[in-house]
Amino acid sequence: MSRITRRALGAGIPALLTAPAFAQAPAARLVIIGGGFGGASAANFARRQYPWLDVTLIEPKTRFVTCPYGNLLLAGLRDLNSISFGYERLAARGARVIHDWADAIDPTARTVRLRGGASVAYDRLIVSPGIALRYGAIEGYDQAAEAIFPHAWVPGEGQQTLLLRRQLEALPDGGVVGLAIPDNPFRCPPGPYERISMIASYLKRHKPRAKILAFDTKNAFSKQGLFQDAWNALYPGMIDWIPANRDGRILRVDPAARVFESEFGVRHRVDVGNVIPPQSAGGIAISAGLANESGWVPVDSLTFESRRVPGIHVIGDATIAPPMPKSGYVANSTAKQAVAAIAALLRGEAPPPAPVYFNTCYSHVGAEYGISIVGVFRPNAERTGFVETPNSGGVSPRGDLPEQRRLEALYADAWYGSITADMFG
Fold first, then answer.
1. Fewest Cβ atoms closer than 10 Å to its Cβ: which of 113, 150, 251, 266?
2. What is the CATH number of the domain that holds 16?
């Protein structure tokens, strides 16, 4: 029996993927749209494991700023350079990297049209478009509004996160920071609550009389007990989390007046506002007809081939994959299975056996205070969705455990270094 190493499990690689690569085969064209956690992982894994694949990565940005660890900028625990990555090593490994926007997909001709006018042909296509913000889902929140109420939720050049940081620096001591948090599904379920924590960490040191009002469209959230224990211990009296059943659903914003308006018409004046609007699959998934009426993409849970357009595989946050969360770790883990399935299909072979997908999500709530949640998932028997492996998951223990929290913060840093190396080579 082959031995599965801890390193392989940590990288989210099923046992079948630790075996030697397939024998040499004629080059086939694998094109990948999107260079984030899903797309970059797929490109690097394809070049490393299947050198006979001709890999092209289409990504408009030359530097990728990660959403994970972005919240730490708000606390002053990271700078922008430390969470920014280029594609030079992927190119050196043999991937063709095109910095342009993918404007359209022609599944009949099997081509991707670029904004610059060129077309790229493929034999199999991976689309890893991330998410799009649903501007207008909250009345008054459009692209102009994000200059006043930044979302800081879509990776780009990091300017939205830096804007929010500057607003916190300008906040008067005793001021109010408001957050509007969306309903499920959305990218990174614990992300808004880590953000609350990191903002509180900054305020505790620099604006100790300030308050945070966190308006939530839900009545519960990921790692809730752990977050609230930490808030009570580290930031007593600073954070008011307002769930939906306490009128926490924000339906309208007035950026000019710096007002959040709740479901029952209560107007809340904030000095700094962070609006995380509802989301959908990224724009190219919508325009290519990959998404259904929910705004997300249904996929075959073994191969990640679109259930609406053959020959196109969709990975990452854009997919419909509950109970798996929309996380960077899931995108990285499932990207490898999609590539392995594509390699088999291109060779006329059956897809690999049913894999195991991993998710580990760390959250920082203080400078030396980390918490985590773990899940293990498999495709269901019908390949229409996913199931959590019984008794496989877990969360950090609750209680006064300072050494546990300190170690988890260190583990989080190690996880981040490992996964970004796995993505960008």
1. 266
2. 3.50.50.60
